[in-house]
Amino acid sequence: MFLVNSKSKKAEQVKDVSFKEIGLKERRDLQEWIANNPTMLGEELLIIQKEFDGFNNTNERLDLLALDKEGNLVVIENKLDDSGKDVVWQSMKYTGYCSSLKKDDIRSIFQQYLIKTGSTESAEDIIIDFLNKPDFSEVQLNQDLSQRIILVARDFRKEVTNTVIWARKYGMKIQCIKIIPFMVGEQLIVDTEQIIPVKDIEDIMIGYDEKSLENIKIKENLANCQIYRNEFWHKLLPYFNTKSDLFSGRNVELNQYDHWLSTGSGLSGCPFSFVVTKNYCSVEFGLSSSEKEFNKKVYDYFYSFKDEIESSFGDKLLWERLDNKKKSRISYRLDDVSIFDKEDWDKMIVFLTENMIKLDKAFRKHINIFSRQNRKSV
Predict the structure, then answer these.
(1) Do residues 138 and 340 lie in contact, with contact meaning Cβ atoms separated by under 8 Å?
(2) Most buried residue, 134, 244, 253, 298, by CB count within 10 Å?
(3) How many CB atoms lie within 10 A of CB 341?
């Protein structure tokens, strides 16, 4: 790592330091960095517990327990300057303990963590939002052989890296991530590097690692709820496309298993969506770009025209700013229908078609104006 002086054009090498020499501790420092910003490990993770010791007949405890975006449990084991020689075995034990945790166990563990950290939020709601599911009944957590391990240290011993590479050949999902501290004056800077699997070939490695789980993935993808949704979208789209060209860019031949089907509105990250669940269906204008501030800005802009928009639409809309979440949404809902009851499908298709056309019309003028003013159009 180099520190560059933009005026003199000189680059000065910044030397790395050890955790020990600058007085950093595993639980007080490294663990808290990751708990507060797990994306430093290279992906979006939801931390659900720290110092987890909820194992039967043992006093052992793992450092951090998380969920990934697929609903898999992730055991995160932290070391400082030296990984030690037993970290793989230690983390495998913890993962074995966690493999038996059921969905309700995980919800309870996360709720305890939220209470301990002073949060009043619902663990169930956060998990639903993190996994982008319509309700908790459709959330799948800790399925079969899905558990993962992330090992974190400044340096890894050869016996550790050799064992990890061997374990990965047999389908175990283990990563090694180096975290290296640097001091620039009084400023602490931390660099992270995934060393196993090597980041540049990770996609290839994942392909090999997951091949043995192919039958499990196929089974999951063809679960009954997904089959119902796919069939429903294949009925809705042809009908809708006879009434509007808003979804003309969506290919009805593609498999679509999600509970939502989206198309662009003209604002980046803010699609129009059909949503179907076991309790309702809705049309939605979702403000879900990667920038929370932008989503709230868009919401506030449209909310300032609420009366005009609802007058054009012909009814009251559901306005949800969702201050504690990244996204916001504006929707119109039909309750007491279910995607899993085919007798409701005709009613749902008519409702979704008519009201998506109305929603597009009600927002179109303001979308165009906002796009021009903010140069966020696509």
Answers:
(1) no
(2) 298
(3) 11
* pLDDT tens figures, 303-326: 999 999 999 999 999 999 999 899
At 54, the pLDDT band (50, 70, 90 cuts) reads confident
The H-assigned helical ranges of the chain are 31-36, 87-98, 103-116, 123-131, 158-169, 202-211, 214-221, 224-241, 292-303, 306-313, 345-374
Q: How many domains does the chain have?
A: 2
**What's the CATH number where 279 sits?**
3.30.1460
Strand, coil or helix: 179: strand
Q: Are residues 117 and 27 in the same domain?
A: yes
Report pLDDT for 6.
84
Q: Which residue type, as a one-letter code, is found at position 262?
A: S
Residue numbers of the domain that contains 291: 222-374
Asked if residue 33 lies in contact with residue 185, where contact means CB atoms within 8 angstroms, the answer is no
Say if residue 208 is in the same domain as residue 267. no
In terms of DSSP H, where are the helices of 15-122?
31-36, 87-98, 103-116
Q: Are residues 160 and 253 in the same domain?
A: no
